Amino acid sequence: xxxxxxxxxxxxxxxxxxxxxxxxxxxxxxxxxxxxxxxxxxxxxxxxxxxxxxxxxxxxxxxxxxxxxxxxxxxxxxxxxxxxxxxxxxxxxxxxxxxxxxxxxxxxxxxxxxxxxxxxxxxxxxxxxxxxxxxxxxxxxxxxxxxxxxxxxxxxxxxxxxxxxxxxxxxxxxxxxxxxxxxxxxxxxxxxxxxxxxxxxxxxxxxxxxxxxxxxxxxxxxxxxxxxxxxxxxxxxxxxxxxxxxxxxxxxxxxxxxxxxxxxxxxx
Amino acid sequence: xxxxxxxxxxxxxxxxxxxxxxxxxxxxxxxxxxxxxxxxxxxxxxxxxxxxxxxxxxxxxxxxxxxxxxxxxxxxxxxxxxxxxxxxxxxxxxxxxxxxxxxxxxxxxxxxxxxxxxxxxxxxxxxxxxxxxxxxxxxxxxxxxxxxxxxxxxxxxxxxxxxxxxxxxxxxxxxxxxxxxxxxxxxxxxxxxxxxxxxxxxxxxxxxxxxxxxxxxxxxxxxxxxxxxxxxxxxxxxxxxxxxxxxxxxxxxxxxxxxxxxxxxxxxxxxxxxxxxxxxxxxxxxxxxxxxxxxxxxxxxxxxxxxxxxxxx
Lengths: 268, 313
Fold this sequence. Notes:
The complex is a heterodimer of chains A (268) and B (313). By secondary structure, chain A is of the alpha/beta class. Chain A contains 11 helices and 9 strands.
């Protein structure tokens, strides 16, 4: 996809995610909206994958460590043909294949189970290391939240990736400045994320996480022999006006079908 | 008499077994959390530097890395001392490994009083209890190097998929088995037959149970001894059979009696064939420094304690 196509794809992902969330009428809308452009760039251009063969060994892998943002990834996977669009109505349905937090055993295209925050980057390190040991030419991507960086395990994994020169690993930090209980600066400030991760020995870039072209350019620049992190400056709830306006109380929300349809009209 | 090729140290058996598996299979990976000098895995780390991953003092990350390696087809063995391999990494084992249905082997060394002079901070009486409530996990405690080598060797192959915790003493273990002994994961081994009482034991307590059975036989009590090296899934059939045939149990474990092997066996008998049970184990106490033999005395983990339990009715 070119830049314009990825912008259109992002719009489709956002709208599809909102419709998916409208079915149960509640969910983690904030953190789903903030990673939409990143998913569009990954699944539009950079990720080497095959929707018909989700377990293809040579594929690039994605660990969505902030597993509660699953609804945006489910929409992306459905749009790329991993499963039928109708399946999106299964979100949070008992016995369904789309649980609130991503689960590799339930959903085609979900590479790793996540939801207990702070664990995904370690798993991504193991995947990247295993792929490198076997000489597979593929990358591992991991998306964590800024609030999630409160969890100490991330910093263990950051050390590990640098120690083992995992140049085939790229981390996205969805810096949407909000965690469940409020603004990250009020709850547990993590300070200068870029400087901290750089200090751990990573190559770090910062971009506007809602600028498709900027995210794409950042990704085309991560060929370093050391692991790379892209800090995404994002807005929690981006594109869903009522959710954006509710910040910092927009981690998990309830909403009506009318609210969703009205923001979809705005987006389209 | 010890035979040739039968290592006296548990850690040698571990390392030799993993080296011989790794020579044949590139999927075998060893991970450690800055305890390679303790785990006996140095020769493996020297021989397979690319497949030996020292994660530093970061057990939670190690469990996640192991999960990721297994996701791309590797068979990781992650070692730390028992408390750090379980208490410290419980959520990572639960979510990143077990709930995600991945394929990892966890080695927790220095169980219970075998932690000796490392003392209470390093002395897990709770590791099996912590992990036992994780669905589908398999919990193993081999008694000697021959048992350990056989079990670890099996876990290097394709017949076993899932999360396996191997609770192992690192140093000397009293020889229980002869070379060539074979083990079926999930099945207890009857080491000695008897009709008056069954003594179930695992790990270091197997040798104590055999000693106790000798002493009991001198006083006319015929004790059956079972090496219950698999704590989960528990051998329901054997427990029911022993209950019916001996009518009485003693369970000996180097672990807190709360959440331990005795409880697991009691859950089975309560449902199948209720029998009186004596619990020889750590009575809900913390560890402390001491020589292993001294600590066995202090916590009541000796053959004499088993004999006393047999006489307590």
